Amino acid sequence: MSQRSKLGLLLAASALCLPSQIWAETLRDALVKAYNSNPTLLAARAGQRANDENVPIARANGLPGVSVSGAYTENVHSSTVTLGTPDRFASGVANLSVPIFLGGAVSSSVNSAKARVEAGQADLRSTEATVFTNVVAAYMDVIRAQAIVDLNRKQVGVLTVNLEATRDRFEVGDLTRTDVAQSEARLAFAKAQLQQAEALLISTRENYVQLVGSAPDALESPPALPNLPSTPDSAVAVALKNNPDLLSASRVRDAARYDVGAARATRLPKLYAVGSSSYVDYLNTLPGTLPGSSKSTTAGAQLTIPIFQGGGPSARIRQAQARQSQAIEREIAVERGVIASARSAFANWQASNQVIKSAQIAVDASTLALEGVRAENSVGTRTILDVLNAERELLNAQVELVTAQRNSYVAGFQLLAAMGQAEARNLGLDGGPLYDPTVNYRRVKSIFWDWDQDPKPAAKATRTVDSKAQTSDISAPPAK
Question: Which end of the chain is more exposed for a tag (fewer CB within 10 A), N or C?
Answer without folding.
Answer: N
